[in-house]
Amino acid sequence: MERRRLSEPKYTLIKRGNRFYVRWWENGKAKRISLGTEDKTEARKLLKQFLAGIDSNTMPQTITVNNILQKYLENRKGKVSGFEGLKYACASISEHLGFLQPNHISRKTCLTYANQRREQGRRGATGGRNKPLSNGTIIKELTTLRAALNFAKIEKWLRDVPYIEIPPTPPPRDRWLTRSEVDILIEHAPSYHLKFFILLGIYTAARSGAILSLKWEQVDFKNKLINFGNGLGNKRRAIIPIPEKLIPYLTDAVNIRLSEFVIEFNGKPIKSIRHSFRDLSIKTGIKGATPHTLRHTAATWMVIAGVPFPMIAQYLGNSVEMIEKVYGHHSPEWLKQAAKALSDEY
C-alpha cells in the first residue's frame, strides 16, 4: 500500500549497520542521507541541524558541503595567504554544515550557524570555557562557505548557489601604537627574530605574511630597496626603499643568517608570529596589539605626518581610496576645506 503523501516530508533518524541516517519519503519511496556518525547523541544533534537547514521543497542532491570544502581547499592551497586560517574556517563549517546538501542551505541555516558558533566559541579552546567569538570570525567563515559554493558552480558541480546570509561587518579597529609603545615592544621582545619582525613591520608597513616569507634575495642593499614580491590571491605587495633606521638591523641580520629567509629561527622559516606577539603584548600591558597592528600603525604615522595619500597607498600596496577611507581621519588636512567653507562669508 502506497504511503500517504505529506505536504512536507517527515524526516526521521534511522540506523543502518553502524551508521545513522536521516530518512524521509518522496513519491512513495524512501530516501536517506548519511549523517556520517555512529554515535546516537551526535546523530540527534546532526538531525536537529539538518532540520534547521530545511526550509524548501528541494530534496538533497548527491554532493555535500564537505565534498565542496575539500575540493575548494585543494584548489586554494598555495594560491592564498593565510591558508591555515582558511582551513580553520572550513573545519568550522564542516563541523556544523558539512553533512548538508547545498540546496538545503538557506538564510535560516546561516543564522542558525552564526548562533551556534557564538555559543561554541573558538574551536580548540582549552581551559574549560569557550573563548568569545567575534562577528568578524563568523563573517570570515560564512564568506568562505560562499566562496566554496561559487567555486563549485564554476566547476559545474552546482547549477545554482544558495544565498549566504552574512552578519553585519563590525566597525574597523582603529588601534595603533604610539612610538613609546613600539619602543617598549622592541625592548622587551624575548627573542631576536620577534624583535626583528617588529622592526620590519613598523619600518616597511608590510603584512605579516610578506615579512615572514621575505628572502634575502629580495633585499637589494646596493640600491637600498626591498621587493616584497607577488602576493597570494588578491594581496598586493610593494617595492619600497629601505628606511635608514632599518639598514643597520638588516646588515647585522644578513651577516649572521643561517637560511635564505630574513626572519628565521635556528635556520628555519617561521610560519606564524601571532602567539609570541600576543604573549609579548600581554607581558608589556599593551592591549589590543597584534602583528597587523604594526602595519596599521605605520600607515597612521605616515598620515599624521602629512604624507600624501597616493604615496602611502603605493608604500602599502593598497588603493588610494582604501587609505582615504581607513586612515583619512588622522590627516591634519582632513575635512579642513569643509570646515573653512562654513566659516567663510558670502
Automatic annotation (TrEMBL):
It comes from the Bacteria. Residues 172-340 form the Tyr recombinase domain. GO terms for molecular function: DNA binding. Keywords: DNA integration, DNA recombination, DNA-binding. GO terms for biological process: DNA integration; DNA recombination. PROSITE patterns: CB, TYR_RECOMBINASE. The keyword Chaperone does not apply. PANTHER family: PROPHAGE INTEGRASE, PROPHAGE INTEGRASE INTS-RELATED. This is Tyrosine recombinase XerC. It comes from Entomobacter blattae. The lineage of its organism: Bacteria, Pseudomonadati, Pseudomonadota, Alphaproteobacteria, Acetobacterales.
